[in-house]
Design a protein that fits this description.
Blueprint (H helix, E strand, L loop, with lengths): L2 H20 L5 H17 L5 E3 L20 E8 L4 E5 L5 E2 L2 E2 L9 E2 L3 E5 L2 E3 L4 E2 L5 H7 L4 E5 L5 E2 L13 E3 L4 E3 L3
Parallel strand pairs: 1-2, 1-7, 7-10, 8-11, 10-12
Antiparallel strand pairs: 2-3, 3-6, 4-5, 8-9, 12-13
């Protein structure tokens, strides 16, 4: 079985784990845990002014209750399906399948994030992400020099995930139970 097939199997497994976990995840303890973890990471970062976030899908961590949004200029991903690229803009009007999907007239200002908050179906101990298979974040991360924070439920923090040469790790992983700085 090749790595792409392994990843597809793992995607389905982690979607099931997340679905089961989320039945009990809407609690103050989970929100407080994420808030504590993200605050630890943000205290280590040198006062960023811009942050790239995402419009959470139903199986992704909803960061809005615990991220101190007033401290940052937030940018939301806008996908260009032709070039398969992603850029950040100051809008959150419309959520498409993989994030914000807008007409040019609906985009706000372009944002160059200093920090990215990156969702995933799973992350491993080396900071590698299992996403949805489109490669948008991998392409974005290949040229991104800021701080990369992966955010995931603890049920999806895994020892090791299969990866390909184009997969890029994050610098930190945040769960509702802990935060992890990735040492490379």
């Amino acid at each position: 079985m090749d790595i792409a097939e392994q990843k597809n199997i793992l995607r389905n497994q982690f979607k099931s784990k997340i679905s089961a976990f989320m039945k009990d995840a809407n609690t103050p303890e989970v929100t407080e845990g994420f808030q504590e973890s993200i605050n630890k990471v943000l205290s280590e970062i040198n006062s960023p002014k811009t942050m790239g976030v995402y419009s959470p899908l139903t199986d992704e961590v909803d960061w809005r209750p615990f991220l101190p949004m007033e401290k940052f200029k937030l940018g939301f991903p806008v996908i260009d399906s032709e070039s398969k690229s992603m850029e950040y803009f100051t809008t959150s009007n419309s959520v498409g399948e993989l994030g914000v999907s807008l007409k040019d007239s609906e985009k706000g200002d372009k944002v160059e994030p200093e920090v990215l908050l990156i969702p995933g179906l799973a992350f491993d101990e080396q900071g590698f992400r299992l996403g949805r298979g489109g490669g948008y974040y991998d392409r974005l991360l290949a040229g991104f020099n800021g701080v990369k924070i992966g955010i995931v439920y603890s049920c999806s923090y895994n020892g090791e995930l299969p990866r390909l040469d184009h997969d890029k790790p994050v610098d930190y992983i945040v769960t509702e139970k802990a935060c992890f700085k990735i040492n490379r």
